[in-house]
Amino acid sequence: MDDLSDDDILAELGVSIEAKPVRSHTPREERIIAGFEDIVRFREEHGRAPRHGEDRDIFERLYAMRLDRIRALPEAAELLAGRDPYGLLTEGGDAPEAELAELDDDALLAEIGAGSDPDDITVLRHVASREERRAAEEIANRTTCRDFARFRPAFEAAEADLRNGLRQTRLFGNNAAIAAGDFFILGGQMVLVAEVGRTIRTPDGKTDARLRVIYDNGTESNLLLRSLQRALYKDESGRRLTEPAAGPLFSGQWEDGDQESGTIYVLRSLSPHPYVDEHRMLIHKIGVTGGTVEARIADAAQDPTYLLAGVEIIATYRLSGINRVKLENLLHRIFAPARLDLTIEDRFGNPVRPREWFLVPLPVIDEAVARIRDGSIAGLIYDPETVALVPG
Q1: How many CB atoms lie within 10 A of CB 221?
Q2: CB of 220 closer than 8 Å to CB of 212
Q3: Strand 143-144 with 207-215, pairing
């Protein structure tokens, strides 16, 4: 027994030592298999085959194209036998047949990451395409926004509009247009499209444009319009902020007794503060009250909201059937770019920053009220540089 080899011992025990044949694949076939396995994983995660469409996630669109290309390969059925539990190869694609017919074998293989050179680092295998990486890098590569002070009032106004119902959030897919001045929610941050560059033509014949995008954390990026669209589509929480609207400011009905339901008031401070004293004729408090203005300002000298000083009434405007809260929010949004940035201490030494004072001349306030009355105020905002109401 000691002279028996391992093979002899196994033979004596009746154990077959026949080696099982192992099928080997060429590098080209391995890449086709790897590409198809990505698609199968997508099917397992989402319960359906990947689909084409501008509104689809960029990876889904990539997998949809890969699947179409694989279906067009004559050897795919045999090569992927046993690897297609969902019948993806026989479902039929939704890409135009003419589009597939225009590609030769090499082009088809390149699309699915199976180029002829296995060592070519430019070949897409089962990683993101260069277009996908570029889009992701554009979103990630942000720099400090050095003039963020210009945009901060707009962000603050937009946040206030959301809190007070003047703006709403909507799924981005419901409206994919992007224009200068638009606000979005992306990755949990508020995003402002500050500038839209000239229109350019992409290699596939579509139009695009370079954007200057400002984020509410004081950073910015210069990315392509289509890259921002893709990022918003991909982000399940991606939202568009609707344009601010006055809402039901005026009900068209008088209150009981035909009394005015609100008064817009404009006050001037008598504070001895050096900055207030220097700009006294330009600094105004704008508010709305349902009672008398005199009663509202009775304790102004004790109230940090009134700069802990007496005030004088400069103008009042009586309006009927208004929603006072929305009206006041609208006025503060319009004049937000000119909000007074001043910190004072209250009676207990605590710092206070009043939010209802603005550096704006009375004639512009008169115009704003007139436009509210005739309904032409929508979309306007005060521009301190031109001292005028301009489209926001």
Answers
A1: 20
A2: yes
A3: unpaired
Q: What pLDDT score does 12 carry?
A: 62
Residues 326 and 246 sit within 8 Å (Cβ to Cβ): yes
Please identify which residue in the block is written with the tokens 């050095």: 146
The span from the CA of 60 to the CA of 53, in Å, is: 9
Q: How many CB atoms are closer than 10 A to CB 36?
A: 23
Render pLDDT for 206-234 as a digit per residue (tens, 0 to 9).
788 899 999 998 899 888 888 888 888 88
Specify whether the CB–CB gap between 199 and 147 falls below 8 A: no
Count CB-CB contacts under 10 A for residue 112: 28
Identify the three-state secondary structure at position 368: helix
Q: Rounded to 5 degrees, what are φ and ψ at 291? A: -105, -150
**Buried residues in 350-364 as b, exposed as e (16+ CB within 10 A):** eeeebebbbbbeeeb
Quick: pLDDT tens for 13-55.
555 545 545 557 787 788 888 888 888 888 888 888 888 876 6
238 by DSSP, 3-state: which? coil
Provide φ and ψ at 159, rounded to 5°.
-65, -40
Length of the chain: 392
DSSP secondary structure code for residue 17 in this structure: -
Cβ atoms of 288 and 328 within 8 Å: the answer is: yes
Contact 33, 67 (CB under 8 A): no
Helix (H, G, I), strand (E, B) or coil at 391: strand
| Domain edges within the chain | 27-127, 138-241, 256-391
Which residue type, as a one-letter code, is found at position 240? R
Query: Are 325 and 164 spatial neighbours (Cβ–Cβ below 8 Å)?
Result: yes
Listing DSSP states for 190-221 in one string gives EEEEEEEEEEEE-TTS-EEEEEEEEETTSEEE
